[in-house]
Amino acid sequence: MNIPQSDYPRIVIVGGGFAGIALAKKLKNKPVQVVLLDKHNYHTFQPLLYQVATGGLEAGSIAYPIRKVVHEYKNFYFRLCHVNEINTKSNKIIADIGELRYDYLVIATGSKTNYFGNKEIERNSIAMKTIPQSLNIRSLILENFEQALLTDDEFERNALINFVLVGGGPTGVELAGALAEMKNAILQKDYPDLDISKMQINLIQSGDRILNTMSEKSSAAAEKYLKNLGVNVLKNIRVTSYDGRTISTNTGVVLETATLIWTAGVQGAIVNGLPASSLMEKVERIKVNEYNQVLGFPNIFAIGDIAMMTTEEFPQGHPMVAQPAIQQGKLLGENIIRFIQKQEMKPFHYNDKGSMATIGRNKAVVDLPNYHFHGVFAWFVWMFVHLFSLIGFKNKAVVFLNWLYNYIRFDREGRLIVRPYKKKSFTSFTFDEI
Amino acid sequence: MNIPQSDYPRIVIVGGGFAGIALAKKLKNKPVQVVLLDKHNYHTFQPLLYQVATGGLEAGSIAYPIRKVVHEYKNFYFRLCHVNEINTKSNKIIADIGELRYDYLVIATGSKTNYFGNKEIERNSIAMKTIPQSLNIRSLILENFEQALLTDDEFERNALINFVLVGGGPTGVELAGALAEMKNAILQKDYPDLDISKMQINLIQSGDRILNTMSEKSSAAAEKYLKNLGVNVLKNIRVTSYDGRTISTNTGVVLETATLIWTAGVQGAIVNGLPASSLMEKVERIKVNEYNQVLGFPNIFAIGDIAMMTTEEFPQGHPMVAQPAIQQGKLLGENIIRFIQKQEMKPFHYNDKGSMATIGRNKAVVDLPNYHFHGVFAWFVWMFVHLFSLIGFKNKAVVFLNWLYNYIRFDREGRLIVRPYKKKSFTSFTFDEI
């Protein structure tokens, strides 16, 4: 990998998400050599991916070049690569661009979509965890509409403009709301020769309420907002199969659709090489102690979504969202220096600042630790928090201007099919000659 | 294609570039049915493609959804498709989504890259005529730098960061200038572990001056600007071959490079079905009369780059740039209605408003019909003209803000490798273990 030798100990960080970047910032100009690895050359602000998918924001506005974050840091190296394996015996990571020895390793690889072993759904659905996936969803929505124009078969046309989202967490809820606004404000105008009232947005939730990590009050408010926007919220239903055309469920409900967007679960994005005893089954997260040290490996740490730190308050580990990742990254930045200097480390305590979700224009739900509210003010709070969490002045300014423009004009201009999404052909058209 | 029958005559426009959009706007709510076809669902503002390629602007800022241009027009249909053939006997076009009868056909398919028959160069080089191509160049520049970090072989590393642009027209000149600014302001900071002074930008021109459609004064000024920015301008040289690694030329000059960007020529993007007698050989443009009517076909018109209208002043046809396309589109909008109503059409006269090119920060050259100037003021004129030529308020605002930010901060934030460019592997690395 062409990383020079250094007199300082080498810390290798795998992953430039919320946790990895928070850690990297803390290690700026400290007496260590840091090597940051990621498969993308940018940091993704995942909470706004759904706005890229629905054309409200450009990809560049919610991503930030990692090299720009770290370019002034001394003794700091970034490499764009896929890490395939960890060799804990020789203290090396093995990547597609070569091997690298570490003194300390930090695994911050985040999470990936969990299909719960259903390969058919994995093959036929589309997820929304990365920028390329969001752009694929954007293209797919528009391509479906272009296709729907071409068919005389009503059944087929309706399936093309039926969007089914599986998973009633924040991602599914926010995407459903944005799709509904896209339907009402944009698609209606852009496709005057289609009957847009036939466009369906179905949100399927396995449990008895959406946003089930939030308060019941917020769940109820969010569901009401979605219904008012025209989204069908289907609860207590599990999707059992999807062949690219027909969704079957455990209750007998059947949906015909060309598009299933799967947001129903996440699991840790583990790297090969750790023993099974260090991993939590099913969720694929790495067991760590209160210092984010991987059990059995004092010089290996895991932070963020991938880390499973069980406490009395969080027997299932911390929620797989940005805040615990950022807080763990920051603390580890201090702890790893302490550890190297043989000082005592500080245990991690999660400071839960609350959670929130937006459903659309003037509509959001916010749960603070002791207070729940929703409506216009909640929506302003949501915008304010997300705007100020973005990295970089220009991204903040561009996102703010886009939101202002979209709000005033009821518009979303990001509707270019720049990277057509290659999907197995849903249908073969009969070409009418007129 | 599911276009309804209409009592009005049907005009089919193939292509939503400058000419096609100018025509479409003129036909708004006229007593005709209009069907606009394009292979993209957006209009591209080609003069700024080089800024997308070098990370100064996002793709969405220089493209505009075609459906948004026409969504309020009555009796107007857009279809996303590739047109494969024209059948002039049955008055039909044959596309990948079906066939369509026309009463009047307007070919506005523009131009494509001309490799002058050299298949090897076509295979190994990259062009910059479309947004996807610009994004590919952007990814390629960054991917080359990431690769260059990984090799110990100096020869290989230098080839990876040697950028060769063939063609000294506005596209080559503007891209060379932007690359030089990227080198000085960005790449130097982003790749502190590379010796950026080894990065080369070579601009190869076959003739004895660059910008040879502009005044000699402007050519000289542009060349001086480029040299001051560190670009090697090589004149009177023709590239004869490029195998993906080594460029050979007619003068014996040999260049080793992983990247050849070809901007040395354009030709008409003709559609099959017109007889050879209607076409101008080599340049592949369609011969038209002074009303843009295709010779031999009274109900077929061609406008913009694809149209070859020879006049005393323009014996080789009009320049293949935006202005003649826009002017022809506008005039044809009036003429085609006159033609349908059996009135006399007006002949086309090109109003040459001048030409300009920018080389970088504070550096541009402008040729007005009777006056040539360059420098800071020329650069402001260039920015003003390009800003106000963009379609849509938001694109104007976003581009303006980006330029302001880039100017103040010497920055270009669009450096995400979102769509990795798959190139035949230039090299195989030896993986060093440290």
TrEMBL record, chains A, B:
<keyword id="KW-0809">Transit peptide</keyword>
<feature type="transmembrane region" description="Helical">
    <location>
        <begin position="371"/>
        <end position="393"/>
    </location>
</feature>
<dbReference type="Pfam" id="PF07992">
    <property type="entry name" value="Pyr_redox_2"/>
</dbReference>
<dbReference type="InterPro" id="IPR023753">
    <property type="entry name" value="FAD/NAD-binding_dom"/>
</dbReference>
<comment type="similarity">
    <text>Belongs to the NADH dehydrogenase family.</text>
</comment>
<dbReference type="InterPro" id="IPR036188">
    <property type="entry name" value="FAD/NAD-bd_sf"/>
</dbReference>
<keyword id="KW-0560">Oxidoreductase</keyword>
<dbReference type="GO" id="GO:0050136">
    <property type="term" value="F:NADH dehydrogenase (quinone) (non-electrogenic) activity"/>
</dbReference>
<keyword id="KW-1133">Transmembrane helix</keyword>
<keyword id="KW-0472">Membrane</keyword>
<keyword id="KW-0520">NAD</keyword>
<keyword id="KW-0274">FAD</keyword>
<feature type="domain" description="External alternative NADH-ubiquinone oxidoreductase-like C-terminal">
    <location>
        <begin position="353"/>
        <end position="408"/>
    </location>
</feature>
<keyword id="KW-0812">Transmembrane</keyword>
<keyword id="KW-0285">Flavoprotein</keyword>
<protein>
    <recommendedName>
        <fullName>NADH:ubiquinone reductase (non-electrogenic)</fullName>
        <ecNumber>1.6.5.9</ecNumber>
    </recommendedName>
</protein>
<dbReference type="Pfam" id="PF22366">
    <property type="entry name" value="NDH2_C"/>
</dbReference>
<dbReference type="InterPro" id="IPR045024">
    <property type="entry name" value="NDH-2"/>
</dbReference>
<dbReference type="InterPro" id="IPR054585">
    <property type="entry name" value="NDH2-like_C"/>
</dbReference>
<feature type="domain" description="FAD/NAD(P)-binding">
    <location>
        <begin position="10"/>
        <end position="329"/>
    </location>
</feature>
